[in-house]
Write a structure and sequence with these properties.
By secondary structure, the protein is mainly β. The chain has a single domain, classed as Beta Barrel (Porin), CATH 2.40.160. The protein is built from 1 helix and 16 strands. The chain has a 12-stranded antiparallel barrel. The protein is globular and about 60 Å long.
């Protein structure tokens, strides 16, 4: 049963610009939003997702398009070692979001993530596809960006509530900065195992504390090195009237991340 629990955690986003031009005689119409494409190659020492270890080291490439206030992309995970059976091997996620700016300090961001696991064994209770809309609010005060966020996976019938705080400290001598992130969340799903009667419920909490340092290699390229510790706790599943079972995937791990991004 524990292998089915990792689906409960799959219950992951960004922004752009606009320009106006004027003529001497009469104002011209607004120009079309600039379009950017960012390709990123990342390597992680552990694949942790909402407090659950879905794999060991992994290669995580992505391609993202930004057009004005819309962002969309494709993200993937390919395990390199310590593969957790039937878990995210591989995983492909399509995502998108749109930012509605309320003020210089506040914005509302609706979005979605479509998760795909082409090799997941459905006869063992796994879903090959799930879809998760989300709604986030961003508010910045005294340099601290606070982001409460709500997710709901339509297939797993799973709600996730999460809040993130972010703060940057400049490193002028190195031409970089330290980006600190703190995240805490909780989730509960009521149909997390495919083709199972009675249905399987799963719930748990998680937290993360991380820091990253970006280095601008060129106008188009950026190298980022990061470390985070994340942990899942109080995570269980329960089928019908049977006794609840601890989720063995909900553990604590340190994660080293190195990624190289190129924007054009």
């Amino acid at each position: 049963m524990n292998n089915k629990l990792l689906l409960a955690s799959r219950i992951a986003l960004l922004l752009g610009t606009r320009a106006l031009f004027a003529q001497a005689v009469a104002p011209a119409p607004a120009a079309a939003p600039a379009v950017t494409v960012t390709a990123t190659a990342s390597v992680v020492s552990q694949y942790m997702f909402r407090g659950q270890r879905l794999n060991g080291a992994g290669f995580q490439p992505s391609v993202e398009i930004g057009a004005g206030d819309f962002t969309g992309g494709l993200w993937a995970n390919v395990p390199l070692d310590n593969i957790v059976p039937d878990s995210s091997d591989p995983e492909f996620d399509l995502y998108g979001s749109y930012t509605f700016k309320m003020s210089d300090a506040a914005s509302i961001v609706p979005g979605f993530t479509s998760y795909h696991y082409p090799k997941a064994p459905t006869n063992a209770g796994f879903y090959r596809n799930t879809f998760e809309p989300s709604l986030a609010a961003n508010y910045t005060v005294q340099g601290v960006k606070l982001t409460p966020k709500f997710y709901y996976d339509l297939m797993l019938k799973a709600a996730t509530y999460e809040v993130t705080g972010a703060y940057a400290v400049a490193l002028k001598e190195l031409g970089s900065e330290l980006d600190f992130t703190v995240t805490a969340g909780t989730y509960k799903g009521t149909d997390v195992a495919n083709h199972t009667t009675p249905s399987v419920k799963a719930w748990g909490d998680y937290w993360l504390l991380g820091v990253a340092a970006p280095f601008q290699i060129s106008k188009e390229a950026k190298l980022t090195v990061g470390f985070a510790y994340t942990e899942g706790r109080d995570a269980f599943s329960k089928q019908g009237s049977f006794k609840q079972v601890p989720n063995s995937l909900a553990i604590g791990r340190g994660v080293v991340t190195i990624n190289y991004a190129w924007t054009f």
